[in-house]
Amino acid sequence: MAQQNMPGYVTTIERFILERQGLHPEATGDLTTLLYDIALAGKLIQAHTSQAGLTEVIGVTGTTNVHGEAVQKLDLLADQIIINLTDHTGRLAVLGSEESEEIIPIPDKYPTGKYVLLYDPLDGSSNIDHNVSVGTIFAIYRRVSEEGPGTLEDCLQKGRNIVAAGYILFGTSTILVYSDGHGVSSFTLDPQIGEFLLSKSNIRVPDKPKYYSANLGYQRRWSEGVQRYNDWLTSKENDGPNLSLRYTGSLVADFHRNMLSGGIFYYPGEMGHPKKTQGKLRLLYELNPLAFLSEQAGGTASTGRGPILDVQPTELHQRCPVFIGNTRLVKQAVGISPT
Ligand code: P6P
Hints:
alpha+beta, Fructose-1,6-Bisphosphatase, Chain A, domain 1, D-Maltodextrin-Binding Protein, domain 2, eight-stranded mixed sheet, five-stranded mixed sheet, 8 helices, globular, binds 6-O-phosphono-alpha-D-fructofuranose
């Protein structure tokens, strides 16, 4: 009997990552251990999100983040957990977080490494008080600066340069989904043993889409092209399968469902809105990681003009319109977004 068919055989995320280290010829083990660090952060964050309703961490801090959005206490906790688990290991040159206006340097007392970590510590956190799933999103790059403290330039790389990316979805179960450029795999946290165990490998976006996801409350602020596209999706002109509207207001939850079941998520720019002419979602630590995963799973991610992964970032927190999911549905949207 093959080993993996033996009763009780499980593949932990550690085993899975280690076995794939050989796929990266230049691997020194740093990427492997950095991914462990992120998995451990997921376990710690899960321990707090699962208790959010029972302890004082629920609710807002009374502060706002760089985008003027109310910061939930769990946002800050998740951010600190990720920094505390990664800033001293000598694997990172610099970090970039949704919760920090500037890049996060490695403290002088610690060695710097060859990787860059960009992340949203707890996306969708406004849903925490309503017990809706939330998620951590991350992208890992190689540094482009030579040595010493990492730089903003290290963070402003195209998504095409991503080495590995993924998310941790804190929902009915805690699932870590990632890709190292060789397909997408998911791991479910077994709370009894505290391990992420392989649940799906080589995840592919189904050819037949089931859902479309957008905040239709904003459609009067969308361009005419986007409004036409939105109407097309559920019109007789769309000769594809009928689509159901599913929108949770939590990007990771909506993306995860659509990647597994097929569909499209879009958050377009809004005409005349002071902050959202380029949409609401951030390029570096939300859209690039998800676009990387989507392409790895056979999907497509577009700004409405071209691939998300080909956008040259100019700012750490820049926003970008997004149409992501089944390639046929996304391609229909290309060319309609005026931005
Ligand atoms: P809206 C959550 O605040 C978030 O950043 C994403 O998780 C989500 O997809 C989006 O904003 C929801 O935004 O404007 O529809 O409430």
